[in-house]
Design goal:
This protein is α/β, with parallel strands linked by helices. 32% of the residues lie in helices and 18% in strands. Bound molecules: flavin-adenine dinucleotide (FAD). It comes from Rhodanobacter thiooxydans.
Length: 482
């Protein structure tokens, strides 16, 4: 067992952080999070659900094969096999934690089908409110757990290092007060980077702060160039846009241009259910040509309030009733396949620092994530890491001085908005060398002004270095057809 003097600190209250903290019992954990109430995570917004080969006609091997195809074979094969094999147990564990998944009339788990999956294997809850159900249940378990101390309302903006090892965090509360928390181990479960883009399906807090912190501490990164763009966010003014789940197209909704012509006709054999990057590029091309794209879901039958309550509520809030009118849609930054490089257990290259969930990159998603594999990765990866840390003896803390590695100041709001627009333009669904170079130069010039510029510079560097298209990274200039 580990030394009990210092707690383990987990940063992040999404699926990955919650699963990690729960699995660490009985080792003491401090779970630090920006939100007081568990909101603000991408996990809570997840709509489609969680992939698991549960149908007797399905198999973990088929789930793994689909994951590798989606990832353009850039994936770590062992990690993919681990993910697919562990999925049924992850669903059972979530049920044991109180997540109630939707069932059919016979009482069996309902299995949905999404783009890229060769079988119906998406387990969902509350129709399209899967993530909210998951976070609600896991957060309730965390609040009951005697070994976890939850602290909301804090931004972790620094890492403490002693003798080259991570030895804690520095927090900043809503009044700007700093506090140092020493820890035996620090786990970053801080989510993705979608909110660095001008158009995103992610919450505002998915700003890459954890990734920036890890990089500032010298942790190695991997696959930073691979960002997934979802083709159908609601095209309304704003930065963080409501997502229109792919399941709607699975249920018969169709994309068309301003003239009413089928958008995906002749583009891909799977039409509207082509891979996300293919559809996203087609929508982006229509927009670049000055057009607008619409998703017509008026033909989708059934009980919207039960099947798609999240989409229905979000669209109605913006004045669109999807049962009656076509919805304007746009691509939006959705998921980061890259992140802090970790091994299978979540170790980064910096001793004492671990990463799990979307902020981490263990290679499982390759160059493009298969739909509904990320909550699964967060849950499985979090449990694996939590159990490991609970059972790993740690040496007594060193006696050297503590050093703070800071993420640094944020860009002023106007410059931050300009950076979001720049990334959308240069590092979006379609990329080319000159725009990437120019954007990198802008970020390099801004690097001292704010941490987001330094992070964007690192992302752009990776995008410039990969000169050919692969998965979600599409190089218009040197790209090869998919
Ligand atoms: C709209 C939408 C729909 C999706 N649908 C699905 C789906 O159906 N199935 C699926 O598998 N995936 C889906 N995804 C992707 C999936 O939700 C995410 O990849 C996954 O939830 C990430 O989990 P996480 O725990 O790593 O990060 P998050 O859930 O984003 O949690 C990160 C946490 O870290 C906190 N945090 C961040 N930085 C700091 C800091 N500096 N200090 C303190 N706290 C910090 C945040 O407040 C948050 O609590 C969807 C994503 C979105 C946005």
């Amino acid at each position: 067992m580990r030394h009990a003097q210092l707690p383990i600190v987990v940063v992040g209250g999404g699926a990955a952080g919650l699963a990690t903290a729960l699995a660490m019992a009985p080792a003491p954990v401090r779970l630090l999070c920006r939100a007081h109430d568990g909101r603000g995570s991408a996990s809570a917004l997840a709509q489609g659900g969680i992939a698991a080969a549960l149908d007797p006609r399905d198999s973990a091997a088929a789930h793994a094969a689909d994951t590798l195809i989606a990832g353009a074979q850039h994936n770590d094969v062992a990690m993919v096999q681990w993910l697919a094999a562990g999925a049924p147990a992850a669903i059972a564990w979530l049920q044991a934690q109180g997540v109630v998944f939707d069932r059919d009339a016979q009482g069996c788990l309902q299995l949905g089908r999404e783009g890229g999956h060769s079988a119906a294997r998406i387990v969902h809850a509350g129709g399209d409110a899967s993530g909210a159900a998951l976070v609600h249940a896991l957060r309730a378990r965390v609040q009951e757990a005697a070994h976890v101390q939850w602290r909301g309302g804090v931004d972790v903006d620094g890492l403490l290092l002693r003798e080259g090892c991570v030895a804690g965090v520095r927090t900043r509360d809503e009044r700007g007060r700093h506090e140092r928390i020493e820890a035996s181990t620090v786990v970053l479960a801080t989510g993705g980077i979608g909110a660095l883009y001008a158009r995103t399906s992610n919450p505002p807090g998915a700003d890459g702060a954890g990734l920036a912190l890890g990089l500032a501490a010298g942790a190695a990164a991997r696959d930073l160039e691979f960002v997934q763009f979802h083709p159908t966010a609601l095209d309304v003014p704003g930065h963080c846009l409501p997502l229109i789940t792919e399941a709607l197209r699975g249920a018969g909704a169709r994309l068309h241009d301003g003239g009413g012509h089928a958008l995906m006709a002749g583009v891909h054999p799977l039409g509207d259910l082509a891979p996300r990057d293919v559809v996203a590029r087609r929508v982006a091309a229509e927009q670049a040509a000055g057009g607008r794209v619409w998703l017509d879901a008026t033909g989708v039958d059934g009980d919207w309030a039960r099947r798609f309550p999240t989409v229905l509520a979000a669209c109605c809030a913006h004045g669109f009733d999807p049962r009656r009118v076509a919805l304007p849609v746009t691509p939006a930054a959705h998921f980061h396949m890259g992140g802090l490089a970790t091994d299978a257990d979540g170790r980064t290259s910096v001793p004492g620092l671990y990463a799990v969930g979307e902020v981490a990159c263990n290679g499982v998603h390759g160059a493009n994530r298969l739909a509904s594999n990320s909550l699964l990765e967060g849950v499985l990866g979090g449990r694996r890491l939590g159990e490991l840390l609970a059972n790993t003896p740690v040496p007594a803390p060193g006696s050297g001085p503590l050093r703070v590695v800071e993420r640094g100041e944020s860009l002023p709001p106007a410059q931050l908005a300009a950076l979001h627009a720049l990334l959308w333009q240069a590092a979006g669904p379609v990329r080319e060398a000159r725009a990437l170079r120019d954007a990198w130069r802008v970020c390099a010039a801004l690097a001292e002004a704010g941490w987001q510029a330094r992070l964007a510079k690192a992302l752009l560097r990776a995008m410039r270095l990969r000169r050919h298209s692969l998965g979600a990274h599409w190089r218009q200039d040197r790209g090869c057809p998919r």
